[in-house]
Structures are given as C-alpha cells and as structure tokens.
Structure prediction request, 233 residues.
Amino acid sequence: MARGGELVSAAGIEEAIRSTFVDGEFGLNKLASTDPAIARLARIHRGVIPVLVPDPFTALIRSISAQQVNLSWASTIRRRLAERYGTRHEIGDTFVYSLEPDPLAVASVQELRALQLTTAKSIAVIDSARAAQAGELGMTQLAALDDEALIAHLTRLRGIGRWSAEWFLARTLGRPRVVAGDLGVRKAVARLYGTPVLPSEDEVRRLTAHWGPAATVVQALALFDLAESAGAA
Prediction:
C-alpha cells in the first residue's frame, strides 16, 4: 500500500519536469549536414529529444526492471514497486509516486518476489537501494566520474552490467553514449543505415562512431523512429 499522500507545488513540478530533458541539440544539426540518414530523422521527428531520469536510484530501478522483458511488463513491475514502497504525491485531482531507497533497502527477496520480480532482480533492487542509502549513488559524486570510472562504479552493484551502466550515462547524465549492445539500439541502427543483417555490437559502434556529441540525441531519434515504424506495421 502507498504511504500517506504528499502535496507537491506547481513550481516543484515544473522544475522536476525541466530536469528530465536534455539541454540542447548537442551538434545534431552539424551531424545532419553530413549524414543524410540522420538529416531524415531530424526532419521527420523534429522536437523529439531524450527524456532523462535525473535521480540515480530511480534510474537504476528502471534499468533493472527492464532487463530481458518488454517495456509493458517493466512498467507494471515499477508500478507495483511504487505502490508498495513509494511515496504518493497528490497533484490536484491526480497523483504520482516517488521511490526512495530506505523502504527497499530493508525489503526481503520474498516480498519482492511476491510482486513478480525474479530472484535476481529482487536482489539487484535491494542492493541498489542499500548503495543509495549508503551514499554511493549521489548525483554530484557520480557526475564527477569519467565514463569508464562510472561504469566500473555502477557495475560493482549486483544486477548492473555494462548495458545498464551505459544507459545510465545516456539517460541520467545525458552524456553522448550509444548503448551498442542493446537489441533495440542494434535494430534502430540497422533501420537507420539499411544494413542487410542485424549489426553486432562492434558493428554498431563502427556505424555510430561519427555521431560524437550528438550520440544520445541521435540514439533517441533512431529508437523513436523504430517504434514508429513498428506501430505503423
């Protein structure tokens, strides 16, 4: 059950929303001037930008929930976690939940299994909560690390591999990063460049090496384009 409701100010909501968007196009226009495939994406999906998850703990829980399942089931798992362990915030006639580490740090694997998380994901959620509780997931601390140091820091947590750490770089810190091992990204790059077969992780890195500072923005556009094409099929 959710804990007691908490009122949220309009200014607080506005600031929270602003913090979820990548600031700027990070060289997209320059890249589009030399890459016709990206120029097409930028033209037909004008205004589509990556949405960030600025809270490190929440970002890791989202990543854990999405491992090896479809996005619909991942969303269901996150909703169950929020309703059981989150704080409910009343906003006019509606509400949202936020998830703090303390309740999950003392949860048991059995309790999370009852919400239909796997044993491995239950352990990973608890481990991430305890790391956040211990001060190991502070945004300022993590943002000060370079990419490889941050990946090494995060992958010490159970259930967080390089794939999850790279998504953290892109979707929490907004750094230019192509998550080349992700199946969705591989499909999106294959569609973007018309490769005859699904590219390997190494091939994705080769095909996207020129994306530079626009990598996170282009990756979001390519994934959006892939989703649009699937919806139209």
Remarks:
- The first strand starts at residue 6 and ends at 7.
- Residues 215-232 form the longest helix (18 residues).
- The chain is about 60% helix and 5% strand.
